[in-house]
Amino acid sequence: MSNDHHDFVAREYGPRANAYVESRVHAAGEDLDRIEALVRGRPDARVLDLGSGGGHVSLRVAPHVAEVVASDLSVEMLETVRRAATERGFEHISVRRCAAERLPFADDSFDIVLSRFSTHHWSDLDAGLREARRVLKADGLAVFVDSVSPGRPLLDTHLQAVEVLRDATHVRSYAADEWLAALSRAGFVVTSMSSRRLRIEFSPWIARTATPELHARAIRSLQTRAPAEVRTHFGIEADGSFMLETLLLEVR
Asked: Which of 70, 110, 137, 155 would staple 48 via disulfide (CB 3.0–4.6 Å)?
């Protein structure tokens, strides 16, 4: 199922399952509201939640569709989704352990594919998007949400550095133009794109990933020594809290 990176992600995120279920950043947001609005009125739809994490997407869309399959690399994450679905009476939510780059589903088997705050962990964005396109029906809808790079080298380098110090499973937060190019290569057509700035509170952010103290200090050092342009763009606060840009892409 996996390569070394996939194994690493699974090992790292297993112990973090409850932290992500309880994360306020992941449990709510305009992007989650938009996803729910897009699936509402699709009672016959079969949905794939790709990189489900704590299951916030699966649980939000479940009342509106016929079936949800939550997929993730972490057995522990999937168990939290299964448990929450049982508690809420969502018998039509099932779970499947798999990598985004190699999905164990037939071609054209889903009406909707959703992925929220997962793609920056993928070892191969192009492969994951090709797989999403393969399992999506020809007239299907896909929505991808993730943190996004500002694109400019100075700002991009700072973002990737603090992200990988905070979480060693981080691969890359892609810029909007990188997203558009990758989606086009995979055979998708973007129908809508929206961005928002999300305030990241520093202490819960590093606690969620059990960031080593040495790495947390390195992040703070990068933040305090960063040029004014970087500190202004990310709105870096005295305690290390900052603003993160996110992107929501609706594709057909």
From this structure: 110
Q: Using an 8 Å Cβ cutoff, are 240 and 219 in contact?
A: yes
Residue partners of 125: CB distance under 8 A and separation at least 6? 119, 172, 174, 182
Q: Which tokens hold the place of 148?
A: 């996004």
Q: Output the pLDDT for position 24.
A: 56
Prediction pTM value:
0.92
Q: Assign 2 a pLDDT band (cuts: 50, 70, 90).
A: very low
In sequence order, which residues have a C-beta less than 8 Å from that of residue 214 and are 6 or more positions away? Answer: none
Kindly report the backbone phi and psi dihedral angles of residue 102, in degrees, each rounded to the nearest multiple of 5, phi listed first.
-145, 85
Block residue for tokens 């993160």: 244
Q: Which residue has the tokens 């896909």?
A: 142
Distance, in Å, from the CA atom of 82 to the CA atom of 90, rounded to the nearest integer, reads 9
